[in-house]
Design goal:
With 338 residues, the chain is α/β, with parallel strands linked by helices. It has 12 helices and 12 strands. A 7-stranded mixed β-sheet has the order 2-1-3-4-6-5-10, sandwiched between helices. A 5-stranded mixed β-sheet has the order 7-9-8-11-12, with helices on both faces. α8 links the parallel β8 and β9 (244-248). α1 (6-20) packs parallel to α7, α3 (60-72) packs parallel to α4 (91-98) and α9 crosses α10 (282-294). The N and C termini lie far apart (47 Å).
């Protein structure tokens, strides 16, 4: 089976979708001739033509607004916002139009579109190229929010998102584009081509939206993570010697509550890890769900390891980024309780 980087898996997913369905169109800033700033659309314009893969003006509001109109009239746009940090001018279109279209039209119209966005830090992008805005989307009824952590999942989830009848926010952790990253910034990264998790079939397949995976099983505590933090949490578990079970949520909305609840009831302890700022981050929703559904099984308070409530810094990036050391400390606090 061929091995691909996450970039190549995402490109391949769009290629497969465009080859199978003429309604699928790809557009955004620099995605056509240039192939995208991260090359996730490389070769698509040459293969499918400028009418199906094309560049747009620098206007996120215009990109999303045009995609909503296309989706309402039967196309399946898969658009790229060059960085998640740039989506704010389009947020009203996403929330007030794309997310509401099915509801406000009583089902007469749907909005089958995907909004791809590179997200997260760890690449020295500073405050305007490193944000993790997932909680802004999970708060909105009518949107689905997906965050893959492996090339295999990236392709399968993106194909599922393109085929979905409703709008899907597809967040791509850019620190994972070329290899899994465990948070040790001073250590070399194993490229995806040398990693078993990079095996991606050539043909069509989907990974179901709304279903978590369990990349590491354990008995002592449950870690809830997604994106890059799946690898940070796994590294922390291995380095600490604590038998932690790591849940890769993969989809934040709809959320696989059953997998979460089953794990926490088994372990009695829960640590939540995400890169976004702490206050009102998605970890708070996860903590509330665990508290509501697992209260009588908890042996210790729920811990959160997150980014800080500041803009993403450039000079102190690795103090902001949730490190394996910070996660290990949370593990130890949880294990000492109860």
């Amino acid at each position: 089976m061929p091995r691909r980087t996450m970039i190549e898996a995402i490109q391949n997913a769009q290629d497969v979708a465009m080859g199978a369905d003429a309604r699928v169109v790809v557009f955004g800033e620099d995605v056509g001739y240039f192939g995208g700033v991260f090359r996730c659309t490389a070769g698509l314009q040459k293969k499918y033509g400028k009418h199906r893969c094309f560049d747009t003006p620098i206007s996120e509001l215009g990109i999303v607004g045009a995609a909503i109109g296309m989706a309402a009239y039967g196309l399946r746009p898969c658009i790229e916002i060059q960085f998640a940090d740039y989506m704010y001018p389009a947020y009203d279109q996403i929330v007030s139009e794309a997310a509401r279209l099915r509801y406000r039209s009583a089902g007469e119209f749907t909005c089958p579109m995907v909004i791809r966005m590179p997200t997260g830090g760890g690449i020295h992008g500073a405050q305007t190229h490193s944000q993790s805005p997932e909680a802004l989307f999970t708060h909105v009824a009518g949107l689905k929010t997906v965050v893959p952590s492996t090339p295999y999942d990236a392709k399968g989830l993106l194909l599922a998102a393109i085929e979905d009848p409703d709008p899907v926010i597809f967040l791509e952790p850019k620190r994972l584009y070329n290899g899994p990253f465990d948070g040790h910034h001073d250590m070399p990264v194993t490229p995806w081509k040398k990693h078993d998790l990079s095996e991606v079939p050539d043909d069509h397949y989907t990974v179901p939206i709304g279903k978590a995976s369990v990349p590491r099983e354990g008995q002592a505590l449950t870690v809830l993570a997604y994106g890059t933090m799946v690898y940070v949490a796994t590294a922390a578990a291995e380095e600490s010697g604590i038998d932690a079970e790591v849940i890769d949520l993969r989809t934040l909305l709809p959320l696989d509550e059953e997998t979460i609840v089953a794990s926490v009831k088994k372990t009695g302890r829960c640590v939540i890890v995400h890169e976004a700022t702490r206050t009102s981050g998605f970890g708070a929703e996860l903590a509330a769900i665990v508290q509501e559904r697992c209260f009588y099984h908890l042996e210790a308070p729920i811990e959160r390891v997150t980014g800080w409530d500041t803009p993403y810094p450039h000079a102190q990036e690795w103090d902001y980024f949730p490190s394996p050391a910070r996660v290990r400390e949370a593990f130890e606090r949880v294990m000492q309780e109860g």
